Description:
Blueprint: E1 2-8, H1 12-28, E2 31-38, E3 49-51, H2 57-65, E4 73-77, H3 84-92, E5 96-97, H4 101-108, H5 110-119, E6 127-130, H6 133-141, E7 149-153, E8 163-166, E9 180-184, E10 188-198, E11 204-206, E12 210-214, E13 220-225, H7 231-248, E14 252-261, E15 266-272, H8 282-285, H9 290-298, E16 314-321, E17 332-333, H10 335-345, E18 348-353, E19 363-371, H11 377-387, E20 391-392
Parallel strand pairs: 1-2, 1-4, 2-3, 4-5
Antiparallel strand pairs: 6-9, 7-8, 7-9, 10-11, 10-12, 10-14, 12-13, 13-16, 14-15, 16-19, 17-20, 18-19
Helix pairs in contact: 2-3, 3-4
Amino acid sequence: MVYTLLILGGGQLGLMLHEAAEKLSQKLQIEIKCIFLCAEGEICTKFDHEIGDVTEFQDVYNFGLKYVGIKNVILTTEVENVSSLAVRALQNNYISCFPRAKTIFTIQDKLRQYQTFQEAKVSVPNTIQVPDLDTYQRMAEAGEINFPVMFKSTNGGYDGKGVKYLSNDEELPTNINGQFILQEFVRIEQEISVIIGRSTTGDVFVYPVFDMEFNENHQVKTVTFPSRIDQELQIKAQEIAKICAEKLNVHGLLAVELFITRDGNILVNEAACRPHNSGHLTIDGFDINQFEMHLRCILELTDDIQDPNPTQLFSMMYNLIGHKNCKENYNFSNFDLVNTYCKNQGYNMTTKDYGKNGRPGRKLGHINATSPEELTRHQKSLLARKLALIQVS
């Protein structure tokens, strides 16, 4: 069997999808041919690709249209910021698109996300829609905003961009164009992630809960398995993620970020219908990693699998983010020191360099550290501090 996988976007998630496709092809004795639509200079231009803008209708439509009538062609995406109108047009021309256009359209806008989850009776933080800056100023002057709040762009935000903590009405970003949302500042016990795989026939595969920690720029710093929250909350979080996947009619992966509040409630923060940064630890810590799961779900290759299981009792992913002095051609300082520490502790450490041009604040790679034994809270904390010694500059 030969599959043609059309992928919108050409960043690190596309790179790892390509790697997973090669491995799955060997495992199942099939052929998965990946073709990317991406911008000049993106890392997936080293594979079979076309140059184009995934946000432009005509580029996306022309990319997929030439495959109309060809068997086993599936279009997917490694980013949400694509032309959902073009995806819908391709669907109407009988190209199989997963995620579906409606799913992408909903996910692209945080306000639509929250409204959709509320329709499904899923709890989200209290959210105010603000149509423009003038409205915000009137609301602030009238005392209608209960600071502190979180400012969030409704679309286009990623890797901590488009998110800001506001303690008063003078801290709003100055480069606002159009609507945005203000969200109550939630005092959380833990932020977690649940990743769901959902096949084209509706079969659901659930990963365990992963704990996430963030840096001062709202970027994921570490992701850890197993979660430290109690089992009852973990089961409840997984059930909420299933409801979200069903409501969004997701085919492929859905990563759901959730808040565990200090009083034990669970709120959905946001979701992404693609492989997710919080799932990178599955590459070295689980029998089916998130990229393979996405491929199996959209290619209808799920008959012989069940919920993914850990192959290690402990896994931690650490993001390698460009330091404030990061150069285009960067280096990893203190890498050998940390690698030696992991070996001495009996941890397996694997590093993934995405091969991107370096710049401050950019995700340039990640490290997975795994152990066949569970770690104490002290050991986890010490490992995280050791990994933080690696500077990308």
